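Aim 2 progress update. The chain analyzed this quarter is reproduced below.
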Amino acid sequence: MDWINEFYFNQQKWSTSYTSEITNKDKQKVKLLSEYIGKPPKKILELGAGGGQFAVAAANSGYDVTAIELIDIGIKHMKKLAKKRDKTKGHIHIIKGNFYEVDLAEDFDVICYWDGFGIGTDNDQIKLLKRIDNWLNSEGSVFIDIYTPWYWTNVAGKEMTFGQYKRKYDFDAERCRMLDTWWPKDRDNKKVTQKLRCYSPADIKLLLKDINLKINLIRPNGAVIDYETLEYKENVKLSEAMSYMVKFIKTK
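Predicted C-alpha cells:
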C-alpha cells in the first residue's frame, strides 16, 4: 500500500478535493445519516476524513465528531474549517494518523467511512472491520461506502480530462480492484493510481464471518451514466451503481 500517500497528495494538488468548503452535498450526507441514527447528541467517528467537510458539517449539526485523517493537507484544511464552525453545536476532535494503527480509548454511536473502503487485501479489510467492531458501542451503527465490481468492470478504459489533468479508470480483474489513475496533461511519467478492492454484498458477508457485525441495510449510491457530459444520476439500482452504502450493526 505504498501508493497511498503519493496518490492522495497528488490528487489534492491537481483537484483541490481536500481543500474545498463545506457543500450542500456534505450537508445532505449529514441529513441522510440523521435519518438512520436520529438527532444529536451522538458520538461519530469518521475514518479517512479528507479535508473534514463532512466531519465539520456533522459537528455544525450538533454531533460530537472524532475525525481521523492521514494526509497532512487534509488535516490542515480540517483545522481551518473547524475554526469557523458553529461552536454552540457539536465538538470536533481531529486525529492525524493511520486508522489501522490509531488507539482510541472510547467507543462510538456511529462510525463512518465514506468513499475509500477497499485499500489493500481482504485481510486488511477484515482487520479494519474488527477494529470498527471494537470501537462501536452495543447499540451503534456503521456506515461504509463500498465499490461495486460490476460498474468498474464496465467502465474500464474510460478517460476524462479536467482542466490541466487527466484521469483514467481501469479494472484489475485478478484482484477485483478498481484502478483510478491521475496525471497532468503531457506528463505521463507522473501518473499515480488509486487501487480499491471492489465487493458485492455477498463478498462483504464473507468478510464478516468472524466479526460481530452484520448488514442491516444496503443503499445504492449513484453513477456516472454519460462520460461525454459526465452526467451523474443519484438514484440508480444496485446493479447499476458505482458504489453502495452499507449500514452495519452488532450481531448481538
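Residues 24-37 form the longest helix (14 residues). The mean pLDDT is 94. These observations will guide the mutagenesis experiments scheduled for the next reporting period.
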